[in-house]
Structure formats: structure tokens, C-alpha cells
Design brief:
This protein has helices at 2-31, 70-73, 136-139, 160-164, 208-214, and strands spanning 32-34, 36-38, 42-49, 52-59, 66-68, 79-88, 91-105, 108-117, 130-134, 144-147, 152-155, 169-174, 179-186, 190-198, 204-206, 220-226, 229-243, 246-256, 266-269, 275-279, 284-287. With 299 residues, the chain is α+β, with helices and mostly antiparallel strands. A hairpin with a 4-residue loop joins strand 20 (275-279) and strand 21 (284-287).
């Protein structure tokens, strides 16, 4: 009888152990999402829209709202609300606004997500599979690490990433689903700028007032492709950029003619860094975090 009891106990312990191991592996898998880069810039991940998907969405910290392409709108149970006017570098557009029952990326899950309906055919010139954009109205609910070297997007469950990394905590000025970073820039003049942290941008963008403050002269003209279409702009070179302890020299910058009131002094692309940790809960970003403290699958 005693041996049967021990055998039963061992069996229950074994079942518990393997069940716990499976749960831990599932949690780890959900908290780590592998992504691909489109056009060496856009972070593209699989997204569930309600119970449908996965669809290929761009994770865009510079977009204050999420976007659904018309090609999948009928499949994701979007409920239309009204129309909104959206001002971008490419001009002003009227877009249909609606609500999705939910959006999910790995362990990230948000219900009743507001989206706008927008043709993303310009993005599909870089990657034919892009069907939507997960913007700040989704991302701001979470803290996460974007590792460009390993192409991994790590979602924080508690404080495990924050506690494991080292580096300067640069404050984020958050508001209206935006993240603005204060930094020092140098051209002919020195100026303190507020740039929008943007994972959808492929170069620094400075608005006219910032360029004038720096006495930054345009050197050439180019055509850039955005999710809203192609825009003509001038380009120049920035002598120096200092963000926390991260310093850059001789950076190309885009100088659009359009003026926007909702992106500070311009855009700061996240792919300037090999990795960055965004803590939405406490309002800071760690640029190029030291990862020697990370262990296990996070190493």
C-alpha cells in the first residue's frame, strides 16, 4: 500500500512538473515574438484581429492609432464609427474610423481597439504581405524590448526586462498616444529638440522650425515613400546628436516642407539603435541596453 502511495505521488509530481514546464514554455513563447524587417526599417509581426488571422502588421511607435488595410477589413469584424481627418507629411486625408473586437501580438492583447481604414499599398511595395499597422493606441498598454540584431520583440510580463538590463533611462514625454524624447542636436547651431520615437521612420526627420534653429541647410532633394504615399523633401546632414549617453555624428536627415503640430520637432527612428527597451508604465526608454544580465532564452 505504501509503495502504491509513493508511486501515485511520484506520478502526480511528474504530471505537475511537465505541466508547469509546458506552461513556462508557452509563456516564454508568447512573450517573445520574432519579426522580420521590411525595407530595413519596418518591424513586421503576426497579429490576430479578434479570432481572425494571423495577419502581417507593422509595429509602429510613431503612429498614434492602428490601421487596417481595406483588403482585410471585411475579415476582421471591424465596426465602422465615423470618418476622421488625418494630417500627415503627405497631406490631409479623410479616413473611415472603426473598432476591432481585439488585437493580439503574442502575449499582448487589447480589446476594442480603435483603427482607421487606410490603403497600405505604398508599404506593400516594400513587403507585399503587410495588411495593417499596430500603433501606439495598442502598444502603449505594454512595456517591451525591440532587439534589431536578433529580430526579436520581447514583451514584458512584469518587470523582468527592466530588472535585467542596464543603461540610461531616458524620460519619455507621453501624451495622445505619442512618445517624445528630449535630445541635443548640433549643426551650425546647437538646439534642444523633442523628437517622436518612431519605429516606422527610416531616417531622422526635422521640421522647418527645428532646422532653422540649427541653421541646417538642405543639400539635396529626394522622394520618400510613406504609408500615406510619396512625398518630396529636402535632405541635409546633422553634425551631432546626443540622446542620454548615446552620441551620433554626421547623420542624414529629411527636411519636409509640411509642418505638423503633433510630432514635436520631428521623428527619431528606432533603428538607429541595435536594441531599445520601452517602459510604457513608468515612462522611459533605454537605448542600446546592456544585456549581460539577461539569462536563459533572453541571453
Amino acid at each position: 500500500m505504501k509503495s502504491r502511495w509513493h508511486a501515485g505521488l511520484l506520478l502526480r509530481v511528474a504530471i505537475f512538473y511537465f505541466t508547469l514546464t509546458g506552461v513556462c514554455q508557452t509563456v516564454r513563447a508568447q512573450s517573445e515574438v520574432h519579426f522580420r524587417l521590411a525595407h530595413n526599417t519596418l518591424v513586421v509581426v503576426p497579429v490576430m484581429a479578434g479570432k481572425e488571422g494571423p495577419f502581417d502588421f507593422v509595429l509602429d511607435t510613431g503612429a498614434n492609432t492602428s490601421v487596417v488595410d481595406p483588403t482585410i477589413a471585411a475579415h476582421v469584424a471591424m465596426v465602422e464609427i465615423d470618418t476622421v481627418r488625418q494630417t500627415t507629411l503627405a497631406g490631409i486625408r479623410t479616413l473611415t474610423r472603426g473598432v476591432l473586437p481585439a488585437l493580439s501580438v503574442g502575449a499582448m492583447h487589447v480589446e476594442n481597439v480603435e483603427v482607421v481604414l487606410k490603403d497600405l499599398s505604398e508599404f506593400r511595395k516594400f513587403d507585399s504581405r503587410i495588411e495593417g499597422i499596430a500603433g501606439q493606441n495598442f502598444l502603449a498598454h505594454f512595456s517591451y524590448l525591440v532587439d534589431y540584431q536578433k529580430r526579436v520583440f520581447r514583451i514584458e510580463q512584469d518587470t523582468e526586462i527592466r530588472d535585467a538590463i542596464g543603461g540610461d533611462r531616458v524620460p519619455l514625454e507621453a501624451g495622445e498616444n505619442q512618445m517624445l524624447v528630449l535630445l541635443d542636436a548640433q549643426s551650425r547651431n546647437h538646439a534642444k529638440l523633442r523628437l517622436l520615437l518612431d519605429s516606422g521612420a527610416n531616417s531622422i526627420v526635422l521640421l522647418r522650425t527645428a532646422a532653422q534653429a540649427l541653421e541646417l541647410s538642405p543639400q539635396a532633394e529626394e522622394v520618400a515613400t510613406t504609408s500615406n504615399g510619396q512625398i518630396g523633401l529636402q535632405t541635409g546632414r546633422l553634425h551631432e546628436l546626443l540622446i542620454g549617453r548615446e552620441k551620433f555624428h554626421d547623420l542624414p536627415v529629411a527636411l519636409p516642407a509640411a509642418e505638423l503640430s503633433n510630432i514635436g520637432d520631428g521623428l527619431l527612428p528606432t533603428n538607429l539603435f541595435t536594441a531599445l527597451y520601452i517602459n510604457s508604465r513608468e515612462g522611459f526608454v533605454v537605448l542600446n541596453p546592456r544585456r549581460e544580465k539577461l539569462s536563459g532564452s533572453q541571453r
